Amino acid sequence: QRSPLNDFQRLKATELVSVSLQKEEKSVGVEECARQCTTILHCRAFNYNWQSHGCQLLRLTQHSPQTQLQRNVHYDLYQKKAYMRNCIVGDGSSYRGTQSVTEDRKTCQHWHLKVPHDHRHSPSARNGLEENYCRNPDNDQGGPWCYTVDPKIRYRSCGIKKCEDAECMSCNGEDYQGFVDHTESGKECQCWDLQFPHKHPYQPNKYPDKDLRDNYCRNPDSSERPWCYTTDPATQREYCHIQKCTENGLRLATTTGCFRLKGEDYRGKANTTSTGAPCQRWDSQTPHQHSFLPEKYECKDLKENYCRNPDGSEAPWCFTTLRNLRMAFCFQIKRCADDVEVEDCYYGNGEEYQGTVSKTRKGITCQKWSEQSPDKPQIFPTIFPTVRLEKNYCRNPDNDSHGPWCYTMDPRTQFDYCAIKPCAGDKKPSILLNPDNIVFEHCGRRDERLYNRRSR
Amino acid sequence: IIGGHIGNSPWTVSIRNRKGIHFCGGSLVKEQWVISTRQCFSSCDADLSGYEVWLGTLFKNPGPNDPDKQAIPILKIVCGPSESLLVMLKLERPAVLNPRVELICLPPEQYIVPENTKCEIAGWGETRGTGNENMLHVAELHVMNNQECKVALRGRMKESDLCTQPLQIGVGACEGDFGGPLACLTHDCWVLEGVITPSRVCARKDKPALFTRVSLYVDWINKVMKLS
Known about the structure:
The complex is a heterodimer. By secondary structure, chain A is mainly β. Chain A has helices at residues 30-39, 81-84, 163-166, 448-455, and strands at 8-11, 14-18, 26-27, 45-49, 54-58, 67-71, 75-80, 145-147, 155-157, 227-229, 237-239, 317-319, 327-329, 344-346, 405-407, 415-417, 420-422. In chain A, the strands form 7 sheets. In chain A, strands 1-7-4-5-3 form a 5-stranded antiparallel β-sheet. Chain A has a two-stranded antiparallel ribbon with strand order 2-6. A two-stranded antiparallel ribbon of chain A has the order 8-9. By secondary structure, chain B is mainly beta. Chain B has helices at residues 146-152, 218-227, and strands spanning 5-6, 12-16, 22-30, 33-37, 52-55, 70-79, 86-91, 118-123, 137-144, 161-164, 181-186, 189-196, 209-213. In chain B, the strands form 2 sheets. Chain B has a 6-stranded antiparallel beta barrel. The longest helix of chain B is centred in the C-terminal third of the chain and has 10 residues, at 218-227. Chain B is globular and about 45 Å long. Chains A and B meet through helix 4 of A and strand 12 and helix 2 of B.
């Protein structure tokens, strides 16, 4: 069940190019391409063209001289992990990285040189003795080493850390981005972008912020520790052994009365759900059993029965004391205002506003009315000659009832309202109308018999 | 929905997180646009990759081969005017309309729904023992005059709120229904007059229920659909 892709690190939408490379692609599946590269000693990487299923085996990696990573949406670059990791697995005899100094900062001697230190290790493709990189050709328990260029010091360990020690995890390791790819019982991890041997919901494109790369241990679901699906069909998932940082890492600035974003930093005392259901204490297992034990989630402040968000849900939540309602959100907690401070005011709808505020309520800079990017305006100066659509100032050319607005410089936000508020004392007249003739087209109709037929 | 019945609301959509779990409701106003509430989302430029809108099914957890279910990824979120607490969700592709997936009408700008107008709320939220937790439920409510509502709620309402009449038995929205529609019948068409907003007690007896009055934001809704 093990995929040959497990031996590679994938760089998406990237192609490795080099002047010395001829573009020869064989049409095979990506797994077959990986298999071929694994069995060929000189192969260190491959470009895979997803459009043509073209496989280009490479003797080079991105660390080789005269190579270059080039963005190409049709390609993924797969490079052997041994060449990419800056940490070691086991005794590090498979290490093929590019560190060339010892742990006490002595420069390494080139392996093909016999001076200043004579030795019997001849470079070959199999032992990977190239340049003056740290290697472990004799399976030394101390890991990769090298002869030094200092005549008085023959050799030294390079002090390259084991992957499980190279990067520690804080809290529950949700932000762990290290290179451990085996579970604590030694099982190899399944690649996150594969659905075998275990089918799972954690597809990397659905979780862009979780760094679900290759088959490295991660914690996308706020478990106790980083984990992975295993390549053993009999074991779905297991925790990985990763060193804990001595410090608890950078703690979030906490909020008490309101919450920001998903409310992972909320530390207030709300203890009912939006609709008033009382919360269950986190240290209790009744009426609902759960795994969010306060002692296992030190950074999450699971105190009393307060609403918290220990798992990256949509908002603070809690288990409830109602037997038939396991958990519910505490949406009644107000969101902290994320609007910027206003700098000016307007009367009416602001259609006469001639001020110079040029940022939105979220603080995004306005786009010039005369510019065509990042948004192509449908409202521009020549259409509204009577409105002074100057520079990037907030205006209200279409008499928007919610006030002056502008196109923004953020491509994700076409337009937004500005950091201006109605002037004090400018009470808008009641605007609720009651039109006599209303006509609706192509909406709001349903087949009333549909559900009844089904129920029968 | 508390005190409702299993029913058909082809414009009510289920909003799902990356694990496919329902967490809020919404209303389909155009093939590629859904309206919901701000409280359901982390920010106005949240990365919603992996989040989906499910339409066309009556079931909260439909089987994998449910032929009626459409699952459409959410492309982007746009927040409404600050006091509105509304959001619009643009879908990655248009929903396919059929008898199980329909558009709800938008009210005319600034329109006041007449008192006593028949309305419905719909959702896959909690029933608290009053129904089948796996089915879409619908409950009937009637519009209440704003002045009377203000008195009943001792002033705790805004002009941008819409009230429905209190009932002596508990009927109303509950956990998981937030963001869903208050659809009212006008000239034989169902119109999105309100959006179910959080921070309300589930189906409180003898108290009016509050919704965001959509007619005040129709100009914004049309502008977003036109410009985005």
